[in-house]
């Protein structure tokens, strides 16, 4: 089968940073599905894995952790899907990625594709939806419905216009009923946050305490940090309520330590979200990702949620994938970048 892969970890403007290759088509066993990939999207994790380093791969390394497609074959222990089913999923970082004609994935982390979305629109959703859902409802313990407690609570989303922020705003507002404050630094990204459902938008390049006071807010119940954890640590400590909760998804730059003592006096709970944890460690609740993707598909079909696809880079080729990676690395991406499957 055809695929786009790398052998060397090079700057994205180097023509060898991605190459078109032909590899053997895998055969599904156990609970794996073989999916004919119809569309993929690119996430910051792709660019981090591909970041320049001295390692040279002896076999083509295929990246990509967001796909939508059609089940071509199934392993002998599968029970959730059949050949011909349309699906969407993110996969797991410890296995080959989905930048290929066909792809193996464990059915327990696969959801049925939303019927109202194209394959491209659907491919934009899985990784960010899983991340946002787990961060809000599993890590922070927020109820996934509009309770009285939720409607009296406020969440601050740092980095609201990116892929994860875009769907988090929707889930927090439309599903949980929270008051949502997002951060953005440009007029276009601030408008996108409002379009996604944010009640207020503040500038993350300024101290949060001052920015929140400008909109009549002193403290927030929850914080989701999707950008520069080390940069915002003091501002988060300033504005989180006593006994509040914070969830971060971005590791610190160069493994820089952060001062967790800032949260001690307020008894703040601080946790991490990494959406690959369940499939990487095959946790007993691994199938929760299948369930949440199915629930998200229903919400997308009902119009409660909307796709976050904003840019389409054509058919999956080495050239087009380089363009998409360059766009992500520019640091100004709003929403998600998508490519159609290999022709």
Which descriptors apply to this entry?
6-stranded parallel sheet; Quinone Oxidoreductase, Chain A, domain 1; globular; 11 helices; 7-stranded mixed sheet; Rossmann fold; 16 strands; 29% helix; alpha/beta; 343 residues; 28% strand
Task: Tell me what the structure shows.
The structure is a single chain. By secondary structure, the protein is α/β, with parallel strands linked by helices. The chain has 2 domains: 2-125 and 281-340, Medium-chain alcohol dehydrogenases, catalytic domain (Quinone Oxidoreductase, Chain A, domain 1, Alpha-Beta Complex); 129-272, 3-Layer(aba) Sandwich (Rossmann fold). The chain contains 11 helices and 16 strands. Helix 3 crosses helix 10 (288-301). It starts with a strand and ends with a strand. The model has no long low-confidence stretch (mean pLDDT 97).
SSE map:
Elements (H helix, E strand, L loop, with lengths): L1 E8 L9 E4 L9 E11 L1 H7 L2 E9 L5 E8 L11 E4 L12 E5 L3 E3 L6 H5 L2 H14 L8 H4 L2 E5 L4 H13 L3 E5 L3 H10 L3 E3 L5 H6 L6 E6 L3 H11 E9 L20 E4 L4 H5 L6 H14 L7 E7 L2 H12 L6 E5 L3
Helix pairs in contact: 3-5, 3-10
Task: Characterize this entry briefly.
The chain has helices at residues 44-50, 119-123, 126-139, 148-151, 163-175, 187-196, 208-213, 229-239, 277-281, 288-301, 318-329; strands at 2-9, 19-22, 32-42, 53-61, 67-74, 86-89, 102-106, 110-112, 154-158, 179-183, 200-202, 220-225, 240-248, 269-272, 309-315, 336-340. The protein is of the alpha/beta class and 343 residues long. It has 2 domains: 2-125 and 281-340, Medium-chain alcohol dehydrogenases, catalytic domain (Quinone Oxidoreductase, Chain A, domain 1); 129-272, 3-Layer(aba) Sandwich (Rossmann fold).
């Amino acid at each position: 089968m055809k695929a786009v892969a790398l052998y060397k970890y090079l700057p994205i403007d180097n023509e060898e940073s991605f190459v078109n290759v032909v590899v053997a088509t895998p055969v599904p066993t156990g609970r794996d599905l073989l999916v004919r990939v119809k569309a993929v999207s690119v996430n910051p994790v792709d660019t981090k894995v591909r970041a320049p380093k001295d390692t040279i791969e002896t076999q083509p390394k295929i990246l990509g952790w967001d796909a939508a497609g059609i089940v071509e074959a199934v392993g002998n222990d599968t029970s959730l899907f059949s050949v011909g089913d349309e699906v969407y999923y993110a996969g797991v970082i410890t296995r080959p990625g989905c930048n290929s004609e066909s792809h193996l994935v464990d059915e327990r982390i696969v959801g049925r594709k939303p019927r109202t979305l194209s394959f491209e629109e659907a491919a934009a959703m899985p990784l960010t939806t899983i991340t946002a859902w787990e961060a809000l409802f599993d890590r922070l313990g927020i109820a996934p419905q509009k309770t009285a407690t939720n409607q009296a609570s406020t969440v601050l989303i740092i980095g609201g216009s990116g892929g994860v922020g875009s769907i988090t705003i929707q889930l927090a507002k439309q599903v949980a009923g929270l008051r949502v404050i997002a951060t953005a630094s440009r007029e276009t990204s601030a408008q996108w946050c409002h379009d996604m459902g944010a009640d207020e938008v503040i500038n993350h390049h300024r101290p949060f305490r001052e920015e929140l006071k400008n909109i009549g807010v002193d403290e927030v119940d929850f914080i989701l940090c999707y950008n520069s954890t080390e940069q915002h640590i003091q501002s988060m400590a300033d504005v989180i309520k006593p006994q509040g909760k914070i969830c971060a998804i971005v590791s610190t730059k160069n493994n820089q330590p952060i001062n967790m003592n800032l949260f001690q006096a307020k008894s703040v709970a601080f946790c991490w979200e990494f959406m690959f944890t369940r499939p990487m460690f095959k946790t007993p609740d691994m199938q929760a990702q299948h369930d949440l993707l199915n629930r998200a598909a229903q919400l997308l079909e009902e119009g409660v949620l909307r796709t976050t696809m904003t840019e389409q880079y054509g058919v999956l080729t080495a050239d087009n994938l380089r363009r998409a990676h360059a766009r992500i690395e520019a640091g100004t991406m709003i929403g998600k970048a998508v490519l159609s499957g290999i022709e």
